[in-house]
């Protein structure tokens, strides 16, 4: 059985693992000048060895069971620290034939402090070392970071490359380019890497049919949907298509359109009592619509996701009920 731990130890401590060889325990950041090592590759044998190194290890805590167990107090502390560093939050509801998946995202600046806090929190939530290494390498050129948690146990790390894309567009280059990168550890432990390619200044003929079909198929009202989509332009609908194994999907970032929440609520009125839609409507009464996503996923099939802005209190409410 695997376990996770946060080990605060002096530099140079090594654990020999009889199950996984060799476990590389490398510091992700420093706390009071003592390296903090977050790892998911420590087995129970290693943990016994670690516990025996009382003279060399300052603190060991945060041992946890696999996904979907009550969150440890250490993990909650790290997430609260992440909340204090965040520049924004959103709540999302993804609808498919499998039901409704509720998620929440921390939006963070691309600073070393935020990256360190995100890395440790992700590790405590079960994100593997190789994935964290890939995330660290991908931060070059990123201007924002993100972590999404799901009530089904998945953990997703995101990077945004808006500044690089904006520079490209300012030079007159409208070639599709990565805007977001998602490194995902889905429920059940499956890993997926999704690249969100932006089509700069995508014409209405590119984004409107997809959005219209998805919303009407979902059961939204036709006239309010048309009113909602009329508010989008190539400048205010940031359109991306996702490249990832087993996935054909799109993401429309609509925050720049500043769509009134009531316009979205009116569109959802015919299905307001559907499971999960009532929660989307309640969130829209407090925050703005940020994104709509849809497409095909090899696991959940056709899906439609709404992302709504929230604040720190909204994130705290989500975390209170979260299991990991």
Total strand segments: 14
Order of helices and strands: EEEHEHEEHHEEHEEHHEEHHEEH
Q: Largest sheet, described in full?
A: 10 strands, antiparallel, barrel
Radius of gyration: 21 Å
Largest sheet, spatial ordering of strands: 5-6-7-8-9-10-11-12-13-14
Q: What portion of residues belong to β-strands?
A: 25-35%
In whole angstroms, the N-to-C terminal distance is 17 Å
Category from helices, strands and their pairing? alpha+beta
Average pLDDT = 83
* Number of helical regions: 10
pLDDT < 50 stretches? 1-45, 47-69
**Percent of residues in helices:** 25-40%
Instruction: Choose one word for the global shape.
Output: globular
Summarize the structure.
32% of the residues lie in helices and 34% in strands.
Strands, helices and their partners?
Blueprint: E1 2-8, E2 29-31, E3 34-43, H1 44-52, E4 59-64, H2 73-85, E5 88-96, E6 99-109, H3 112-124, H4 129-138, E7 144-150, E8 155-160, H5 162-170, E9 177-185, E10 191-198, H6 204-218, H7 222-230, E11 238-244, E12 247-253, H8 261-268, H9 277-284, E13 289-297, E14 301-310, H10 312-320
Features:
four-stranded antiparallel β-sheet; 34% strand; globular
Description:
With 324 residues, the protein is an alpha+beta fold. Helices cover 32% and strands 34% of the residues. It has ten helices and 14 strands. It has helices at residues 44-52, 73-85, 112-124, 129-138, 162-170, 204-218, 222-230, 261-268, 277-284, 312-320; strands at residues 2-8, 29-31, 34-43, 59-64, 88-96, 99-109, 144-150, 155-160, 177-185, 191-198, 238-244, 247-253, 289-297, 301-310. The chain is globular. Mean pLDDT is 83; it is low at 1-45 and 47-69.
């Amino acid at each position: 059985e695997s376990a996770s731990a946060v080990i605060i130890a002096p530099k140079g401590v090594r654990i020999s693992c009889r199950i996984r060889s060799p476990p590389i325990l490398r510091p992700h950041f420093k706390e009071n000048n003592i390296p903090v090592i977050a790892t998911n590759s420590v087995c129970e044998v290693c943990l016994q060895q670690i516990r025996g190194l009382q003279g060399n290890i300052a603190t060991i805590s945060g041992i946890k069971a696999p996904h979907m167990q009550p969150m440890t107090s250490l993990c909650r502390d790290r997430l609260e620290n992440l909340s204090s560093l965040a520049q924004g939050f959103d709540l999302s509801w993804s609808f498919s034939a499998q039901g409704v998946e509720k998620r929440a995202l921390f939006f963070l600046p691309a600073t070393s402090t935020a990256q360190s806090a995100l890395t440790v929190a992700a590790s405590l939530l079960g994100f593997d070392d190789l994935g964290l290494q890939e995330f660290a390498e991908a931060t070059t050129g990123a201007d924002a970071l993100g972590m999404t948690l799901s009530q089904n146990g998945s953990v997703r790390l995101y990077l945004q490359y808006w500044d690089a894309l904006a520079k490209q567009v300012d030079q007159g280059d409208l070639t599709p380019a990565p805007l977001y990168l998602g490194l995902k550890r889905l429920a059940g432990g499956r890993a997926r890497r999704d690249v969100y390619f932006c089509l700069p200044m995508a014409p209405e003929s590119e984004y409107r049919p997809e959005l219209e079909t998805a919303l009407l198929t979902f059961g939204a009202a036709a006239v309010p949907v048309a009113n909602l989509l009329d508010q989008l332009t190539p400048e205010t609908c940031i359109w991306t298509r996702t490249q990832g194994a087993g996935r054909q999907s799109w993401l429309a970032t609509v925050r720049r359109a500043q769509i009134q929440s009531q316009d979205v609520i009116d569109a959802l009125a015919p299905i307001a009592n559907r499971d999960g839609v009532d929660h989307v409507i309640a969130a829209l009464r407090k925050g703005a619509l940020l994104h709509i996503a849809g497409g095909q996923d090899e696991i959940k099939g056709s899906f439609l996701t709404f992302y709504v802005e929230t604040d720190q209190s909204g994130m705290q409410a989500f975390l209170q009920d979260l299991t990991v």
